[in-house]
C-alpha cells in the first residue's frame, strides 16, 4: 500500500484519526477532511513531522462544491486517489416526536448525502486508474434500530444500500466498496452519546454504558478506534480484493443473538 493516496473524512479525531495513523504506518499518503480546522491541521502537522506526506482540507461533506474541492485538492497535491474512507458522522438523541427537522436534515446530509457525494467525485479517478477502495465506516445501527436515534439509524441503513449499489457498478474497474459496522467505539462522539442517552432515559451515564450500550453485546466493553482502523486497512489491501458489497460487523457479538 506504500505510496497510495487516501481521503479520510472525519479524519481529525476518533475513528477517522485512528485510520489515518494506521495508513501512515504502511506508507499511505493521507488527506484529512474535517470541519474541525484546528484538529485537522494539528493531525496533519503531526504526521508530516513524522515524515508522512499529509494534507488537511476543511470540508463539509454535505456540500457538493466542498467535496469537489476536496477531491481536486487531493489530485493537485498527490496526482492520484486510491482510497476513500467515508467516516464523517454526528449524532443527535431525542424522541421522534421531538426531533428537530433541521437536525434530521443535517444528519442525513452528512452521513448519507455526504457518502454519496464523496463516492460520486472520487470514483472517476479510481475508474481511470482501474483500481480503488471505498470503505464506508457505518455502524451496527445500519442493521438494527435504537430508540431516540431516528436520523442516525435512517442514514446508516441508507449507507448500506449505497454501498451495495456502488460495489455492483464499479466491480469491473477493480474497485471494491464495503461497509464496516462497529458497535460502540470509545470516541468523542460516543462520549457525547452517553451524556445524551442519560438525559433522554433519565438514568446515570454508567447505567447507559452497562444497560444500553453493552447489554446486548457478548463482549462487555467498548471498541477501541484502532480495531476499526485495522479492518479498514485490511479491506484496502490486495488480500481483500475479493470482498465487495459487504457489511462487516465488529459488534462484540451483538447480532449473534
UniProtKB/TrEMBL annotation:
Q: Which SUPFAM superfamilies match?
A: NAD(P)-binding Rossmann-fold domains
Question: Which protein family is it in?
Answer: Belongs to the short-chain dehydrogenases/reductases (SDR) family.
An annotated Gene Ontology molecular function: 3-hydroxybutyrate dehydrogenase activity
- Would the keyword Transcription regulation turn up in this protein's UniProt record? no
Judging by the UniProt lineage, the source's domain of life is Bacteria
Q: Mind listing the UniProt keywords for this protein, alphabetically?
A: Oxidoreductase
Q: What is its EC number?
A: 1.1.1.30
Q: Identify the Pfam families for this entry.
A: adh_short (PF00106)
Q: What is this protein called?
A: D-beta-hydroxybutyrate dehydrogenase
Q: Can the keyword Oxidoreductase be found in this entry's annotation?
A: yes
Q: Which NCBIfam families match?
A: PHB_DH, PRK12429.1
What biological-process terms (Gene Ontology) are attached? monocarboxylic acid metabolic process
Amino acid at each position: 500500500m506504500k505510496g497510495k493516496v487516501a481521503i479520510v473524512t472525519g479524519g481529525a479525531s476518533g475513528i477517522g484519526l485512528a485510520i489515518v495513523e494506521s495508513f501512515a504506518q504502511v506508507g499511505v499518503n493521507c488527506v484529512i477532511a474535517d470541519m474541525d480546522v484546528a484538529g485537522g491541521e494539528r493531525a496533519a502537522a503531526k504526521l508530516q513531522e513524522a515524515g508522512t506526506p499529509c494534507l488537511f482540507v476543511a470540508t463539509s461533506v454535505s456540500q457538493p462544491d466542498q467535496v469537489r474541492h476536496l477531491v481536486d485538492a487531493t489530485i493537485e497535491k498527490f496526482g492520484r486517489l486510491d482510497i476513500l474512507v467515508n467516516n464523517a458522522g454526528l449524532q443527535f438523541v431525542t424522541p421522534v416526536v421531538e426531533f428537530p427537522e433541521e437536525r434530521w436534515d443535517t444528519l442525513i446530509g452528512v452521513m448519507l448525502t455526504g457518502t454519496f457525494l464523496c463516492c460520486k467525485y472520487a470514483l472517476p479517478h479510481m475508474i481511470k486508474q482501474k483500481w480503488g477502495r471505498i470503505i464506508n465506516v457505518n455502524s451496527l445501527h445500519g442493521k438494527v434500530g435504537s430508540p431516540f436515534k431516528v436520523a442516525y439509524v435512517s442514514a446508516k441503513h441508507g449507507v448500506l444500500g449505497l454501498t451495495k449499489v456502488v460495489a455492483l457498478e464499479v466491480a469491473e474497474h477493480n474497485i471494491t466498496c464495503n461497509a464496516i459496522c462497529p458497535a460502540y467505539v470509545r470516541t468523542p462522539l460516543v462520549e457525547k452519546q452517553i451524556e445524551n442517552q442519560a438525559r433522554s432515559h433519565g438514568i446515570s451515564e454508567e447505567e447507559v454504558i452497562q444497560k444500553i450500550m453493552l447489554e446486548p453485546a457478548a463482549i462487555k466493553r467498548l471498541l477501541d478506534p484502532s480495531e476499526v482502523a485495522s479492518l479498514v486497512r485490511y479491506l484496502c489491501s490486495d488480500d481483500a480484493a475479493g470482498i465487495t458489497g459487504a457489511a462487516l460487523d465488529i459488534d462484540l457479538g451483538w447480532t449473534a443473538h
